[in-house]
Amino acid sequence: MRIATAVLVSVAATLSSATAHPESLDPPTLRNGISQFVLEEPLRPAPLMRLRGLDGRTLSMDKFYGKVVLLNFWASWCAPCVEEMPSLEALAASLPSDRFVVVAVSLDSGDGRQVKSFVKRHNLRHLTVVRDPNHEFGALTSEGKPEPTMPVYGYPTTYILDKRGLVTGFLVGPTTWDSPLARSFIDYFINLK
């Protein structure tokens, strides 16, 4: 009887560790009107990006290790990006900030005044809004040029980084981030061990 119990405990521990540290990811399917979330396999470390906050200070992405990061590349002149912002704000407001963060990376050129105005006008209080005006990290892909660190395949492009800072995949186009499906999708990554 003790041997049977020990075997059952061993099997349960093995199954538990397999789900805690999956070999490959299997999140719920997330689609929008344009595309669906594309898993990156193998996972790759996110670049150590240093972006400019709206206050002019440098923000290093390694600050967010230990949290799931929704990294959204957008522009204030992009209608689909503007359409998506309220749902990103609602998602960020609904989740604990010690486990999840939305980093909205503006690719607007200029000194950032238009981005500050946009943030104020849309009352974006729960997003970490930063700028990449020189497109050092997020840039549109184009033939004949080397692929950027975080390719932007269209506006908006969203990446999900896991708690270890690994790029899990991306989604192109506006998404209703505060929908039950999107919430389930994000919860999948938050609940990974």
CATH class identity: Alpha Beta
Domain count: the total is: 1
Question: Could you report the average pLDDT, rounded to the nearest whole number?
Answer: 86
What Rg do the Cα atoms give? 19 Å
Domain Thioredoxin: 40-191
Keywords: Membrane, Plasmid, Redox-active center, Signal, Transmembrane
Organism: Nitrobacter hamburgensis (strain DSM 10229 / NCIMB 13809 / X14)
Signal peptide: 1-20
Question: In short, what is this structure?
Answer:
29% of the residues lie in helices and 26% in strands.
Descriptive overview:
By secondary structure, the chain is of the alpha/beta class. The chain has one domain: Glutaredoxin (3-Layer(aba) Sandwich), CATH 3.40.30. The protein is 29% helix and 26% strand. It has four helices and ten strands, in the order αββββαβαβββββα. The longest helix has 19 residues, at 2-20. It starts with a helix and ends with a helix. 30% of the residues are buried. Residues 1-21 have low confidence and may be disordered.
Question: Notable features of this structure?
Answer:
193 residues, Glutaredoxin, globular, disordered N terminus
